[in-house]
């Protein structure tokens, strides 16, 4: 019995160790995008934090909308172990940058992963002039899937994409955001 319990405990430890050490999953679309060079357009790359990358997202009706993608493959925060606090701090730093650069009425922080189960934050700045401001963005974004006019509306912001990226980079640099050394 004791041998059985010991064996089970060892198996659990090995399972956890596997999760904690897993950096990339070859079957995961975000892991493939995180390869070098990154799969996102260079012009959309906002910042490379030690534990995550910040990318300007497609839906710039929400001016300054960014994705923050964990550098290592994990599906839940509980799998990040000792990296979790740093990952959360990087998200908060990016949120602060978006707030400072674009002064949204409110930021929405979403960590979903239903479609791509690799930890990534959606940081959506919300505006008082958005008629749907009281709802999550996903109702409008679902409509954009089937409606090209709606898609263009939601992809178009009041600030050019290049300027949004430049503003965010400048704020992060000026405020000493942690940055992963170039490899
Ligand atoms: Zn992944």
Can you put this structure into words, describing what you see?
- With 183 residues, this protein is of the alpha+beta class.
- It has one domain (2-174): 2-Layer Sandwich (HIT family, subunit A).
- It contains six helices and five strands; from the N terminus they run ααβββαββααα.
- It has helices spanning 2-21, 29-33, 84-102, 138-146, 148-155, 161-174; strands spanning 45-48, 52-56, 66-70, 106-111, 120-126.
- A hairpin with a 3-residue loop joins strand 1 and strand 2.
- Helix 3 (84-102) packs across helix 6 and helix 4 packs across helix 5.
- The longest helix is centred in the N-terminal third of the chain and has 20 residues, at 2-21.
- Residues 1-21 have low confidence and may be disordered.
- Bound molecules: zinc ion (ZN).
- Residues 25, 28, 30-31, 73, 118 line the site of zinc ion.
């Amino acid at each position: 019995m004791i041998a059985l319990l010991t064996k089970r405990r060892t198996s659990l430890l090995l399972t956890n160790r596997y999760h904690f050490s897993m950096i990339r999953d070859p079957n995961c679309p975000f892991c493939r995008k995180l390869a070098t060079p990154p799969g996102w357009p260079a012009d959309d790359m906002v910042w490379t934090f030690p534990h995550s990358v910040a990318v300007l997202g497609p839906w710039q009706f929400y001016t300054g909308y960014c994705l923050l993608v964990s550098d290592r493959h994990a599906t839940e925060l509980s799998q990040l172990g000792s990296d979790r606090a740093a990952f959360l701090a990087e998200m908060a730093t990016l949120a602060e940058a978006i707030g400072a650069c674009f002064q949204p009425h409110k930021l929405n922080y979403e960590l979903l992963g239903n479609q791509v189960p690799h930890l990534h934050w959606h940081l959506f700045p919300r505006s008082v002039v958005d008629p749907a401001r009281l709802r999550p963005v996903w109702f409008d974004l679902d409509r954009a899937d089937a409606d090209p006019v709606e898609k263009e509306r939601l992809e178009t912001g009041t600030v050019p994409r290049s300027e949004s990226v430049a503003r965010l980079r400048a704020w992060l640099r000026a405020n000493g955001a942690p940055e992963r050394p170039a490899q």
